Queue: 2 jobs
Job 1
Amino acid sequence: MTHEQSGVDIKSGVRSILVDALRKPADLIKPEARIFDDLGAESLDLLDIRFRIERMFGFKIQQDEIARSVSEPLTAQEIRERLTVGHIVEFVERRLRERADAS
Amino acid sequence: MIISVGVDIVSVPKVTALRIRHGQRVHEAVFSEAEAHECRRLVDAQPRVEDDETTEAKYYATRFAAKEAVLKALRIDPAETFEFNDIEVLGLHTITIILRGSLAEKARETAIHSFSGCVSSAEEQAVAFVIGEGNHDT
């Protein structure tokens, strides 16, 4: 079921995905929380998050897209240190805006 | 000569959970058809020392560990464009690694002619070690 079908808003949808994928309490899933350093994600978790977002929001994501949502060109280590919940929410919002603009 | 090395360890139950939860999408994005075929052949051929699910779980977890190890050896940033199934890992203990797309190009740029490696697994963990070999003069 996509977020449109279920009526889930983007922030709540991303939060529920992160709670389920990372097995963390919802109160830790704050916009500034870092996915790897604060929430303990591994690369496998990022794949899980990617596929859950695809299913909930109804679009496909390339392997590198979520990491690139940290807008500056960064090394792998810097991305691990900086990728936050807020980046993922912004990424989903942007992709949904692009889809709405294209239709 | 050895140009680079990579190593990775993954949780076997986590890889299994990912495959169960996302089914075909995982196989489309992460594993190749040849890997799926080799796994089916292994399940069909194995003596029954462990159940099919355990054999499959260890097979795919070692593939994933090897793919991550190759990415480390190539020093790939997560923001670079690639898919996991651009890395094909065949073989059960000693592995053959085939690169496609941008990852094959990256290997050429770093003067790596070939990768070799080995994988191992237990109930909970799968580990892979890979070596990128080449010649800096070419």
Job 2
Amino acid sequence: MRVLMIEDEADFIAKVVAACGSSGKITLATAIDYGLYDMEIVEGTPVEEQLLAHLSALLEREPVDLVLLDTDLSRAQARLRTQTEYRQAFQSIGVPVARYRKGQSQTPLAKLDFLRRLSRDGASAIYVAPEHRDESALAHTLVPWLLHVHDGFAELTRRLEDKAALLEADEGPAGILAALLGRPALKADLLGYTSPNFFFFPMGEEDGSAVKRHATQLGYWLHNYILAFPGPILNEVAAAAFLNLTPRCFRDPRVRQLLDSCKYDGPFNDLDAYYWKNDLGVFLDTIDGDLANAKELEGIDLERIDDSPYAAAYYCVLTHEPIRRDQAAVSPDWIPSGAGVTRIKESEFDELGPMLRG
Amino acid sequence: MGEEIKQGAREPESARPKHATFSVSAALFEELGERLVSKPEIALAELIKNAYDADSPTCELTLTDDEVIVADRGHGMTEQEFLGSWMVVSTQKKSAQRFSRKFRRGMAGSKGVGRFSARFLGSVVELTTVAEDPSQPGMSTQLIATFDWRQIAQQQTIGEVTIDYYLTPAQPTDTPGTTLRITQLRDEAKAISTAKVRSDILRLTDPAAGLEEPAFAFKEAKIARSSDRDPGFSVTFHDSAPANADEITPNVAAAILNAFVGRVRIEVTELGLLKYDVFWNRGKSPIATGAFPISEVASAYSPEELKPGLNAEADERGLIKSVAQIPHLPLTDNLHSPVFIDIRFFPLRAGTFSNLGVNGKEAQKWVSRNASLAIVDNSFAMPAYADSDSDWLGIDASKARNKRDWLSVYTPTLFPMSPNAKKDPSLNPMLALPRGTQLIGRIHIATRKRPPDSASDEWLQPNMDRESLRDNGAFRLLWHISRFAVEMLAHFDRSARLEEEDRANKERDRQAHQALASAIEEVKSAPDIAPPHRERIIGHLVEAQERVQEASAYAESSRLSLELMSMMGVMAGFMTHEFEKTLGNLKGAAALLQNFAAASPALAEAAATLNRNEEALANYLAYMRLFISKARDPHPQAFKARGQVSLATKTLGSLALAYGIEIAIDIDPKLPGPLVPLAAYNGIVINLVSNAMKALVPKLSDQPRRIRVFATNDGNRHILVVADNGIGVPEYLRKRIWDPLFTTTGEEDSPLGSGLGLGLSVVNQVVHRLNGRIDLVDKAPPGFITAFRASLPLQPSAR
């Protein structure tokens, strides 16, 4: 896998180069290697057009699978373009971008701000979470994460190549992604994630790189919206909440084994353990709506989130913990309406929400 | 249209157009003379302008009950000039000729109709003019013509009017010049008070009167031959009318005018560059100067810019609503005239006329009598703006209404008023606007006839009656420039008075200190005070002395410190950016240390400390970043009080933890906060809580350190109480805690640092601005020593 890293701090570049080199799976090229510092801007043509042409030519000679982009390129003293310009250019080309912000620990305020930004700007890059760029252990955090992300995009591309006819059909992004995930019925659920972002899917423009471009767009959508704000696909904590179990209880090997058939196996499944909400629901129906009725779990003291066994709890996207219904705040408008299991804890949101309200 | 032409082409020959011409009734002269001019002094001024334009050094007026004589020693008129100019109504010659032929004076009588003003004064005018005969050098002619306007008016048309004139060689004793003798005086002319006309004429014709004269009036003179240097122009009265008893000699007038407290001098070049100088307290060097193109501000007030959008609201002038409070709009961005302004300010204050050799009261009276901000066009004052009661700049109107906003469009750009200054009458410079009776100044312009091919109608132009200027965009622009001059006086006067107050305060401090020192010495050496009493009295006096010293040192440093701190606002932006990177480095360093922790356990501890500190700082940074973004857009916002108090106290949580301070929040989670900007509420909480923390740190460590934040809603008000069991506020400091920069904890005394010392002062200001109040509670709740209670309206409109 070949990654282009656009970063202006030599120290950090050296660390990432070392981490990628030790993995033996990633070849990392830098902005200097690709001559990005030497790009000359001429007057008369928009900068964006010049950058797109320049990058397209470079990537044609030496393709990359993923771009790793720093959010703050101010130390390059204007010899590099801005991260926004790079993101836009790579979006047009169809190369996935993973962007990161170096800096301090993530505070609750910063986390909430990050989520809000993600819901607004998540259609042009994947964000590298702070835990995936722990500088002391990049080989164990960033490198596997990059590989999994790349696998996710590659898988989507493969599936789309196999079903390229989908692009011709009048399915829209929700229909296409549902088909690629092998669950056409999911289209209705995915529509709940399109309303704020549908304009990012210019499905009508077809050319040679259409599959690549659309796979990248769909990858951003799947990763940044559908998986980040649990609804039809649930991460482990969200799945626990849906089943009204504490995460500790959910991680009991017997519980996991019981629910193994509900696991999600689509693109990005290596990033976390994901479950199909619909499959969990179907399974619950077979045991009268409560895991406690499952024979396989007899003798296990199931810890609940809500005392009422049939109640469903929610996943707090800010604290990553399950919360009861009465602990949940009314969701802000930037949480996709399809994210049915996602909420924010009211006590946290009362503190942080007003600060972020525009 | 094309169709009409075709039809016209088919018309029979008999339908060819005929030609009509205007015929002008001789009664027009009556109109011009009687209606064009409204007052005798204006009629006379128009005749005097002709003398000025003829390069005469003087114009001599004789005013009797039977006749008015206007005589000059100018170049006179040859027969050709008499026939070609004098006898032609509204000749274009004067518009083409901008400067007089010999001394290059700016032509004052620009429309060529001034001579008919004589008609206003009397029915018969005898013209006698002596001029050099250009065809016979050294020879002169004398031309005499008599105009009987009553007979002239009886003619059907002007063309039928015939004037007899006599042309003879002039006698050697006859000097060149023109004399108009007006007889058969009209009632208006007879009724005039000679003394009044005399002073009015002087006002209109001697407009500079001790003020600086504009360079452009003499611009052309510089290129004239040295032998033709302009000797100046004066009007004299050849009669026995007594001089006004109030008149003073020109020298004294000049001395008074130079005793100004404030003076503004403005030049606007024909290219539109405005240069200003401000002089203060009789100074000859300016205390402030500046220059800018007038169009830079004016272009934002053009008719196009002020045109409301399709469905936008308009003011009564049809301009956008946001400029409804600004008079005299819209503006053009070019005056087509140079401008020169010299305005002097004489406030009614002790010492204004000291050391002048003139009785101060008399000088003040003279200023009041001569107070005027006349517009002077080509060296002649325009009557509409020359009267002392002509408030054409709206200065007295502003004073009467206690206006607090600048009205000139230039002043807010050059001398913006801070919201604080606007609100506080002791700081608001508009409330220091001089009164009209305290200002003597002239606004010189040099209008010229607008060329017929000029695309724009927006030129400075006198009205037909010569009394005022046409009300167009150029006049309005002149209004804003002139008003700017007066508002500058207000701005600098306010600053000067504040500085003066500051000096006086310092002097009072010095005197108080000196008096106390003397008292101490006196008591020390007083033999009849018993030693124990003496020690006690001296003890009190020394303490008082220390307080005085403390107060004056504080006052001295506070202003400078405030200014310095305000300048540091720019650092906030840099800090958030750089700080973030530094925190990243800290984290990296902690991780490195952790790698070596196995070899040295001390490193593990250092790494943990670094991580803890980094997290605390990251919290501050995240909080500050959002706080700043909220503070930039301070609009009222709904929120729950507990959430915000909790956020603010959590931000300070690591410090509280480090100093063993327990912060309890006693607020219902659902309690709505007041509808105020979020940054304001957070700022109030952060400041009150950090203040309480500072009061707790000096406490002995074996005692509990507690802060309790309580909030409730009572009727229409939100009540927030922050109580602590810290060291308390000494009785004698209870009032001073609201002073800016006052702090009881020095940097070394308090491990929390002394902060900026602005906390309570700013909190007080913010709370007041939100229509709330804040108090140091007389009796803190049980278990606490100090409590601050802020009360804010739940809705912005509530008080």
